[in-house]
# Entry
Amino acid sequence: MLVSAFLLGLLGSFHCVGMCGPIAFMLPVDRTNHVKKVSQIAIYHIGRLLTYSLIGLVFGLIGRSLYLFGFQQQLSIAIGIIMILMVLIPQKTFNKYNFSKPIYGGISKVKYWLGSAMKKKSLDTFLTIGFLNGFLPCGLVYMAVFAAIAGGNALNGSLYMVVFGMGTIPLMTTAIYLSNFLKGNARQRIQQIIPVFVVIIGALFILRGLGLGIPYLSPAPIHEAISSGIECH
# Structure
């Protein structure tokens, strides 16, 4: 599943550039000193990864509590279905119900703090910008969060989100250096691939939740595996 996390971040970063690209373009990096610029960009990414790891930790704990109540398989199936529905349901439907409205106040504060941080150029500022950037709402991040919940514990949830964040680094870094590096049909085609890949990931979560006894892909439930081991003896 970690491979899916990286690929989701890598492909999804084409969407991220559209959402967070303006922040990347306006980073107050030192464009006269290459070494300093690279270090500033690296610290910015570390800030984003730190946020993703914390988000994964929190939602991984939620997944852990559901796991303890025996809902791990049902949770995996439910998350797979949600991911597929988020692709199939038209965007205007989500906009109509405006699910993110309750957190608008928090988002406004994050944007205000980001604006203040953008006026500084110290190394810790880039960590702050990256950290705050990670809290901005994004559909691909939401999907990664669902996957983190399905991880079943805090470590898996945090690791999934970090790997997802690492997948976004190549394209976000390119966006900082070249604001117009990808345009036209190429970008449009890649944007069309993203929903297909999300559906595939959703199907894999459903398959995993079904517990068909397929190693790594759809392992049998733990209680069944234990029962089988006892019978063998």
